[in-house]
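Structure in, sequence out. Go:
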């Protein structure tokens, strides 16, 4: 179906399976760092169905010169499971930038959204895409942040020319000051729970999510099916998965999914029975385990409420920077839609997005 016509191109809705080769070739040509393996996972095998894609075809050659995708996502809000769409890949060939292609792609996607059963479109946006999205009716409700906890100071000291030579001398002193009163020490003698590593998510994670989701005002689905698709079966990269269980009955209190690169642990997802005491236990056991592995630091990108962030601050995480704007477009007809506009209600990590920490 033709959606719109620009100066030298035409916007059409694409079939993610039939048009796979053309779309992948466009991304590989125009954006060298775009991960090709992402297509099979996010475009074709999402648990909620394939992506919805629009492309701009050059009128003279019919080749793809711009593309945009929405990825279906299930969320739980006010006790209801509803479908939303993540605003995913959007890009254009340099030759047609400035001709309004981004705006026309957004208009085509919005037309689909208005006729769908999705209640919201949302995502994180860089300054360029944020400008386009705001022009098309999206609202920016805050910014995601990056939190970092340093475990071993020698690595960052060695990276700086001014401290490289003295790093072996001063690092032990800095590490002692960092860890002397660290909150995780209170859990070092915890014999009630244990942190385990797993390869796949089983039915215990379904029970965890069903028990815990009502403790979160708005939470993306975290069933075993979703988590295996997102992490265990990911064709893009390998993840490290930890779960905290009670020793007495193996009931789960929470889990963490990490990428570990160059002695830095990137939190892709963290979820617990409640966003307070259970979260503290999960985080404490994780930090203790990573210290034994001589991990240098832990980093987290997050958009959501202060309660969750305050737990991380209790464990020595520092706010390093604000990252991307969080934008959304909701249907006013939904009686629960206003919940989405309050940052405090969100719990949004890389697991909820179409990108990983990508170190």
């Amino acid at each position: 179906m033709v959606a719109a016509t620009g100066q030298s191109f035409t916007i059409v809705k694409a079939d993610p399976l039939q048009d796979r080769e053309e779309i992948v070739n466009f991304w590989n040509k125009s954006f060298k760092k775009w991960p090709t393996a992402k297509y099979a996972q996010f475009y074709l095998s999402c648990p909620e169905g394939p992506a919805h894609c629009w492309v701009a075809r050059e009128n003279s050659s019919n080749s793809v010169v711009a593309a945009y995708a929405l990825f279906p996502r299930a969320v739980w809000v006010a006790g209801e499971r509803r479908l939303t769409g993540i605003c995913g890949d959007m890009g254009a060939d340099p030759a047609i930038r400035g001709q309004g292609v981004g705006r026309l792609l957004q208009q085509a996607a919005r037309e689909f959204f208005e006729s769908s059963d999705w209640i919201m479109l949302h995502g994180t946006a860089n300054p360029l895409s944020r400008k386009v999205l705001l022009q098309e009716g999206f609202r920016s409700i805050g910014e995601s942040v990056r939190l970092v906890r340093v475990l071993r100071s020698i690595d960052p000291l060695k990276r700086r020319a001014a401290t490289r030579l003295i790093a072996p001398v001063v690092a032990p002193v800095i590490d002692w000051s960092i860890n002397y009163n660290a909150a995780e020490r209170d859990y070092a003698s915890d014999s009630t729970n244990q942190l385990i590593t797993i390869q796949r998510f089983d039915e215990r994670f379904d029970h965890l999510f069903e028990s815990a989701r009502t403790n979160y005002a708005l939470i993306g689905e975290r069933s075993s099916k979703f988590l295996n698709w997102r992490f265990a079966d990911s064709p893009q990269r390998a993840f490290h998965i930890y779960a905290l269980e009670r020793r007495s009955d193996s009931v789960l209190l929470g889990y963490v999914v990490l990428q570990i690169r160059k002695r830095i642990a990137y939190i892709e997802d963290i979820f617990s029975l409640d966003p307070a005491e259970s979260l503290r236990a999960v985080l404490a056991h994780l930090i203790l385990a990573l210290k034994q592995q001589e991990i240098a630091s832990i980093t987290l990108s997050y958009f959501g409420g202060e309660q969750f962030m305050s737990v991380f601050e209790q464990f020595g995480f520092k706010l390093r920077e604000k990252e991307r704007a969080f934008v959304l477009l909701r249907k006013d007809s939904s009686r629960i839609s206003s919940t989405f506009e309050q940052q405090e209600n969100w719990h949004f990590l890389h697991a909820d997005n179409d990108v990983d920490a990508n170190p």
